[in-house]
Task: structure prediction
Amino acid sequence: MRYGQLVMGPAGSGKSTYCQALQRHAADENKTIHVVNLDPAAEYFEYEPLVDIRELISLDDAMEDDELKFGPNGGLIFCMEYLVENPAWLDEQLGDVDDDYIIFDCPGQIELYSHMSVIKNLIDTLQTLNFRLCGIFLIDSQFMVDPQKFISGTMAALSVMVNLEIPHLNILSKMDLLSKKAKKQLDRYLEPDPYYLLADMEDDPWNEKYRNLTEALGQLIESYSLVRFLPLDITDEENISDIRITIDNAVQYGEEEDVKTRDFDQPEENDDNDND
Result:
C-alpha cells in the first residue's frame, strides 16, 4: 500500500508552503515524504519535487501551441487532462515502492475540484497504482474573517468533498500571519454553528433581500456537518504534527505494518535449596 495527500485549494492559499512544511517536518523525524508538483503553471516552490508535471507538459506549452491557442484557464485544464490521459508516464515517474508517502501539490483552479471530473479521474488513476489518498483543502485564514466569506469558503470545501469522495480534511492556512485579535475571532469558525454565524449577518442589506437563500445555505452546512476546519501555523511544529497525525489516521498510515516483537531472556529459576 502507498499513501498520499492531494493538496488542493484556491490560488494563493499556501499549498506549496504546506507541502514544504510537511516535508521538512517529516525529515526532522527521520522520515521521508516526497512531493509531486502537479501545477503546470508553477514558477517557484521551495521543495525538490519527486515528479514535476512540467516535464510532461507546461501551461506555456498549451498556450503557445498554434493549434490549441488556449488561455490560462483553458490551458491549465488541458494540461491536467493530458496528464490523466498519460497514466503510464506518471506510473513510471512515481516508481513502485510500498509504504511510499507522497504529497501531490495541485493547481489553484477551484473548478478542477468542485465540479469537473479531471481530478476525480486522477484519483482513480492513483488508486489503481495502490495509493490510499486523503484530500487536503486549504483556505487562507485571512479570507475567513467574517460570516459571508466563511459561508462562501465552506460551500467551496463542501463541493470538493462531495465531488471527490475520498477522506477529506479542511485546513485554515497562514494562521501565523494573523494578529491575536483575528486569531481569537477565528476560533468560532473552527467548530462552526451556521445559525450563530447567520445571526451576525442580520444587518447586511444583501441578506435582507436574500434571507431565504442564506438560511438554506446554513441548513445545507448544518446537514453536512463534516465540514470542519483545522488551523495551520507552519511556525508551530506541534500544530504541524497534530495535522499529520489526523491525516495519517484518515489514510490508516502505518496500521498495516508488522508488529515488532522482542525476545526476552527467561528469568532464572530460584534454587529452593538456597532458601533453606
About this structure: The longest helix spans residues 147-164. Strands lie at 2-8, 34-37, 51-52, 101-105, 131-140, 168-173, 229-231.
